[in-house]
Amino acid sequence: MELEKVKEDSIILLQAKGIVELPEDFLLHFHTHIYCHQGSISFLFNDKPYTCNAGEFVFWFSGSQLTNLTFSKKIKASILLVERDFLLANIPDQSWSIDVVLHSKENPILHLKDKNDKQRVLSNFQLLYAKFSELEHLFYAEILKLQMQLFILEMWHTFANEYERRKRTLESGSLYERFMRLVQEHCIKEREVQFYATRLHITAKYLNFICKQNTGITASGWIQRYARERITILLQNKNLNISEIADQMNFSSRSFFTRYVRKVLGVSPREYRQRLIVI
Predict the structure, then answer these.
(1) Which pTM does this prediction carry?
(2) How far apart are CA 199 and CA 84, in angstroms?
(3) pLDDT top residue among 203 and 111
C-alpha cells in the first residue's frame, strides 16, 4: 500500500496506490472527487451498480446514497475531498448551472474523452489544495474563497461537457430516456405528467406504466424528485429570495410555492434556509 495523505481539514488531497483509506464517515461531511489513473472503483449509487475505470472521473455529493464501495487491488487514484459546508459557503451563483448539477447527482461517473478535461481535473485538485496550504498569505481567506469558486466553475465546465454528450445520446433513446431528458429540461416549470405525455405523444397512464416498468417509480414520482432537487439548489442560492424562486418555478403565488415545498421537503422554504444557517 502507498498512500500520501497531505492534510485533513476542510480540504483533503490524497494520492493513493493500492489500498485506499478514506476518512470515517467521509460521505456525511465531504463532496468526493476521484480521478482513476489505474484499476477500477465499483459501487452502488442509488441502488444502481457502477464501475469507474482508468481515465474516468467519479463525483459524489455529500449525503449521496452510496454503498458497496470497492477499489481494485491495482487502484491508483487522485482523491480530493471538500468539506460540505466549506464548499456551500463559497459556491458561485448556481442558477445557470442547475441542469448540470442535477445531472451529476444522477450520473456520478464522467467519461473524460478529452485529454484537456483530464488535465483540467487534476490541475484543479492541485490548485485548490495549494491555495488551501498558503496559511501565511496576508489575504488567505479571500484568495481561498476565490480559488474555491474557480474550482467549482472548472468542475461545472467538465460536468457540462458530459451533460451535453449524454443529452445528444438520449435524444435518440427510448421513451423512458426521452421522458427523463424532458423532465430535466422542463421540471422547473412543468410538474404535471400530462405535459410530458403530450410531448411524447402518449397517454399519461402509459407514461406512468413505462416509468414504473423501467425503474419502479412513476412518472409523477420522477417529476417530483427532480423538482425537489431544483428547489433545494435554488434555496441554497442566497442571491435569490423566496418570491423570485417561486416565479422561476412558475408558481402563481408564493403561498402555493410554500405549500409545494412543505409537501416535498417537509418544511417551509424559510425553515429550510434557517437549517442551512444552523448546519
Answers:
(1) 0.63
(2) 38
(3) 203
